[in-house]
Every structure is written in C-alpha cells, then in structure tokens.
Amino acid sequence: MQGDEARLLLGFPPNSRPTPSQVKAAYRKKVWESHPDLFPVHEKLSAESKFKLIAEAYACLRSGYKVSHGKKSLV
C-alpha cells in the first residue's frame, strides 16, 4: 500500500503529513466505525475487508514514520 492511499483510507488528504498522534487517532476512529462485530451477519465480510485495509493503512503510515524518523524500536 502506498502512503497516499493509506492517508486517504484514514481520512487525510493525499499529500498531507499527519503527525503520528493524528494517524493513531484517525485509525482508532476508523476501526471503531468499521469493526466487523458492529455489523449484521450479511455485512460482516465487507466490514472485515475494510477493517483489514484500515489496519494495513495504519501499519504503512506507522512504518513510514519509523523509517523517516530513524526510529528503530519495536512499538
């Protein structure tokens, strides 16, 4: 997943530079809105795939911060 796509999934403009705390807050909000357990049975598969994309977007942006800011710790 590319950075622009990840930012869009979390609700940021494509070329924006959200802070790590903004990314975390957006991730938590999107996870809450799309968690599969909140949907009826017939919508769970769709919600689950969206949930996984959001998690992937968050991981993409977090790893970008670790690489671009030189952090080597596991969080």
Tally of distinct domains = 1
* H and E string: HHH
Q: So what's the overall shape? A: elongated
Rg over CA atoms: 13 Å
Query: What's the β-strand tally?
Result: 0
Uncertain regions: pLDDT < 50 for 5+ in a row? 66-75
Indicate the CATH topology. Answer: Helix Hairpins
Structural class computed from helices and strand pairing: mainly alpha
Task: Determine the fraction of residues in helical runs and give it as a percent range.
Answer: 55-70%
Number of helices: 3
CATH architecture: Orthogonal Bundle
Biggest sheet details = none
Terminal CA distance reads 20 Å
At the fourth level of CATH, the homologous superfamily is DnaJ domain
**Proportion of beta-strand residues:** under 5%
Overall mean pLDDT stands at: 84
**The top level CATH class name:** Mainly Alpha
GO molecular function: protein folding chaperone; protein-folding chaperone binding; unfolded protein binding
Region (Disordered): 1-20
InterPro entries: DnaJ_domain, J_dom_sf
Domain J: 5-66
Helix and strand arrangement:
Elements lengths: L2 H7 L10 H15 L9 H25 L7
GO molecular function: protein folding chaperone; protein-folding chaperone binding; unfolded protein binding
Protein name: Protein CAJ1-like isoform X3
GO cellular component, one term: cytoplasm
Protein model, in words:
It is elongated, with a radius of gyration of 13 Å. The chain has one domain (3-68): Orthogonal Bundle (Helix Hairpins). The two termini are 20 Å apart. It is mainly alpha-helical and 75 residues long. Helix content is 63%, strand content 0%. Helix 1 crosses helix 3 and helix 2 (20-34) runs antiparallel to helix 3.
